[in-house]
Amino acid sequence: MTTENTSTEKVELLIIGAGPAGYTAAIYAARADLKPVMYTGIQPGGQLMITTDVENYPGYPDGIMGPEMMEHFRKQAERFGTDIRFGVATSVDFSRHPHKVIIDEEHTILADAVIISTGASAKWLGIESEQKLNGHGVSACAVCDGFFFRGQDVAIVGAGDTAAEEATYLAKLCKKVYMIVRRGEMRASKAMQHRVLNTPNIEVLWNSETLEVLGDQTVTGAKVKNIETGEVRELAIEGFFVAIGHQPNTDIFKGQLDMDEQGYLITVPGTTKTNISGVFASGDVQDKNYRQAVTAAGSGCMAALDAERFLGAMMHKV
Ligand code: NDP
Description:
Elements: E1 8-16, H1 20-31, E2 37-39, E3 53-54, E4 64-65, H2 66-79, E5 83-85, E6 89-93, E7 99-103, E8 107-116, E9 120-122, H3 128-132, E10 138-139, H4 142-145, E11 153-157, H5 161-173, E12 176-180, H6 190-197, E13 202-205, E14 208-214, E15 221-226, E16 232-236, E17 239-242, E18 246-248, E19 279-281, H7 293-317
Parallel strand pairs: 1-2, 1-8, 2-5, 8-19, 10-17, 11-12, 11-17, 12-13
Antiparallel strand pairs: 3-4, 6-7, 7-8, 9-18, 14-15, 15-16
Helix pairs in contact: 1-2, 1-7, 5-6
The structure holds NADPH dihydro-nicotinamide-adenine-dinucleotide phosphate (NDP).
The site of NADPH dihydro-nicotinamide-adenine-dinucleotide phosphate has 15 residues, from helix 5.
């Protein structure tokens, strides 16, 4: 039973986060009559809210804008009775059952089961022009947005496996790819580096940093400085990709849930179960590998089914 407007509230299933994973978990859980309560976090819709066209999500043959797609997800979750609320989970206590989650530092939710779908955030360079042109030529996902720049010149920042993989991906679509690397070497695996260095239309700019992304409405170039020589060069490009890593949104779970060295939640392979019984993780918060809307949605479905089984077994024990 839920009680609104009290500082402590008991719910059957709590979903934290409202991206493709959270909404899909909500759709399945609501249809299974688990009466899910969802807290959306600071950016309802998640990373897709800063994406423009989405053309690789099945079911949308003409493509769809990221925010509009998330609106569809939300409506579908609401249609089956998900209680969607704006609020941020600020701390958790998973040491006892029911699990305790504090919302906005004041409201306590006691939940029989919790699905965590708080996602990950792309890391950005932090320069003003990058933020201004985000979604208008600046992107943190080559697989999502590379297609829009086919036949054009683009740049990508980063030197890890993601940047290397995305640079080679972009090289297949684009005329020219500048890879902006801040040191004189790459962090990427040798095999990936080899691939980058042997792709004729990738030019690696070593020891380089981006001073500014140029453009008014859309990207028209980038100003890049060679840190060793001090030389500043203007690249004429239409797309500017940032691939300097992602940060899973897991700060509040530190010390409570098992995570890897980068902070991604660890789940039992083939399931969404965390190390705590009744706590499940889905979407990018537990996936540093695929990171697609469709894979996040798939794991949200898995989390709802895992939670349903857990709650069913719990009822039988009572
Ligand atoms: P990483 O943390 O491995 O690499 C980040 C890269 O971005 C580094 O080269 C770093 O430079 C650079 N960087 C960080 N901040 C800045 C900045 N402000 N300006 C310029 N450059 C910056 O992240 P990835 O996303 O590449 O990879 C994450 C994990 O996922 C890794 O373990 C990786 O191996 C794995 N992965 C594996 C894949 C595969 O096996 N197919 C594919 C993709 C990822 P510097 O080196 O100087 O610190």
